[in-house]
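Format notes (please read before filing issues)

Several people have asked whether sequences and structure tokens are stored in separate files. They are not. Every record keeps both together, in the order shown below: the sequence lines, then the token lines. Line labels are part of the format and must not be stripped during preprocessing.
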Amino acid sequence: MENTGLDKISKFQYTQLSVLFRKLISKPLTNAFEKTLPCDIQLLVDPDNSGIKKLIDYKNYELKFPTGPKIFASNHVFYDDIATLCAVINENVHILVDSSSKDNFKSFLDRIALYLNGVIYVDKNILEDRFLSVLKMEKVILNGGNILMFPESTWNFSQNEIIRPFRAGIIDLAKKTDSSIIPCGIDAINKKYVVNFGKKFQMNTESKLNLYRDLRDMLATLRYEIWEKDLEKFETLNESYWLEYIKEICKDGEYDLVYEENNIFKPKNVISLEQVLCEIFGIEYNTMATNYEGYKKIKKLVQNWTNYR
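Then the structure lines:
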């Protein structure tokens, strides 16, 4: 008999009964936690098919998703995006959560809520753990559940990469389980949480690499459409504004931004000019989110190098 790894998952986990139970309690659970959110939730939608998206209170618009199993794929930018997305999606989703990150839990109550909602923990730094998390997601989908994941795996505070590189396993998962991928952009603008859903991602016959690129582009477009509704960010994207944006996002919790930046998925054989120059000149590599003064030195180094060439 082929060893699929399912023997490492408890037979009591992610069963049909477990999935059904979470579906039954999902609505009152998400309603309770939505009330704790510090911001109102808005949807970015095109209600009259005019080609122009508008911001609408999410309670005043009925979203329609495809029938059958769904994998919701979203960018990851603030602590409350899980509660926000669960409220807006309005049907139970098991959430893929990084157990190694230090920003996962603001309180014991949050941990209980995640458990009751349905959660799949994964230590992204351990290969076997990533493998088992895929098997768990397959079991949830097989038993009638849906998945919510953040493919980037870390918070994205990059000013230049709207969506950071991510592992393409979501493509394999969708194909194997015949699930619909529903791309989603989320961000906080003008003291509102804004969610922007895309159409069902088309799983055509293209290569896995092309599908990955198409999905990443779609996620970037959805997030950028939200940015367009904040004229100051859209028109200038200046550093001082961006730093204030990061501080605003992080003000209600304790976050290890260095950890988040260091655990970005890095495709093989891909390295930035900034990293190369830091290595050559013996400078510690920093991003704007982790060390602004160090970041400015690196930026000046890149400018000098570019001018020299």
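For reference, the curators noted about this record: The domain at 6-235 is CATH 3.40.1130 (Glycerol-3-phosphate (1)-acyltransferase). The mean pLDDT is 81.
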